[in-house]
Helix-turn-helix transcriptional regulator (Albidovulum sediminicola), 89 residues
Amino acid sequence: MDRSNDRLVAAFAAVLRERREAAGMTQEDLAERADVSARFISFLETGRRQPSLSALSAISSGLGVSMTTIVADLEERLVSDRPEHTGSQ
């Protein structure tokens, strides 16, 4: 089983950026609301870091959405980005 998570990290980065921008927040705004550094948000959005569960909880709260929402967006992104995905399920 391939345990590489490059696709997962890239998908999370994209979801986080899209959610933040849709909320009309800068990285600094989200960092303040989530009580993390703006640098950490930047690292997450560029795939240089992965969130812990507690960081995911704080970020979700900062965005005003549930962790379930973030994970659902992430799963949707992973499915739609799969090379073999044809658009039908």
Observations:
- The radius of gyration is 13 Å.
